[in-house]
Amino acid sequence: MKKKSIAVMLAAMLMLTMASCGGRKADNNADRGADTNTAASATEEAKYPTDKDGNVIGTKQEGAVDEVDMNKVKGEKLEQTEPEDASLKASGEISGIKVSIDSAKLVDTNDGKAVVVAFTFKNDTAEPVAFDGLFDVEATENGASFSPMAAVGVEGVNVTAATQPIESGQAATVQKTYAYNDEEVMNVTVQLYGELAGDMIGTAFKLK
């Protein structure tokens, strides 16, 4: 009888030990899962360019670049003309990155008329980068700037494509949209942020 009691006690202790080990294993697995998720999140953030304060420039805009299609944009195609700075060309390399100002259209939106300008760039850097993370675009007439405009709901237009990081070695077409207020010519220039005397491309579009 005594031996039987001892056997029962040993069996009970073994069950308790196994339950405890199982709980610790589950906790360890949960901790490892949390660490993996944290690491994956950090890797995802590191994949995209950041500004000087460490903020990610742009977000993953699924389908944004794919929605950019000037052929689908219904409006008047604008004729290119000589820009105010006649030395500028509509395409070229800016710090080794190929960029071009492709075309522009005058379109009707719910908020009035807008000018849609298309740009193409190839990411020749080693990391994913967004157009807006690299370039400063100006649209002016006689030194006065055109106001940016969302142009929401216009088929073939998605201005968020300019904030989408493009993989190294890939090219993309992006757009900028501006309010039209009876101006005659729009001068468009592109250069790197913060490099006032650096490489620049430019062209102009007749609005009338």
Structure description:
This protein has 208 residues and is an alpha+beta fold. 24% of the residues lie in helices and 31% in strands. Strands 1, 3, 4, 5 and 8 form a five-stranded antiparallel sheet that branches. Strands 2-10-9-6-7 form a five-stranded antiparallel sheet. Residues 23-30, 36-52 and 56-61 have low confidence and may be disordered.
Write the layout of secondary structure elements.
Layout: H1 2-46, E1 76-77, E2 80-81, E3 91-94, E4 97-109, E5 112-122, H2 131-134, E6 135-141, E7 144-145, E8 171-179, E9 185-192, E10 200-206
Antiparallel strand pairs: 1-4, 2-10, 3-4, 4-5, 5-8, 6-7, 6-9, 9-10
Structure summarized in a few sentences:
The protein is α+β, with helices and mostly antiparallel strands.
- What do the pLDDT scores average to? 79
Overall number of strands: 10
Query: What percentage of the residues does DSSP assign to strands (E)?
Result: 25-35%
**Number of contiguous helices:** 2
Describe the largest sheet: 5 strands, antiparallel
Helix/strand/pairing class, anyone? alpha+beta
Rg: 29 Å
Series of H and E elements: HEEEEEHEEEEE
Principal-axis shape equals: globular
- Terminal Cα span: 108 Å
Helix content: 10-25%
Low-confidence stretches: 23-30, 36-52, 56-61
Features:
10 strands, 208 residues, 2 helices, 31% strand, 5-stranded antiparallel β-sheet
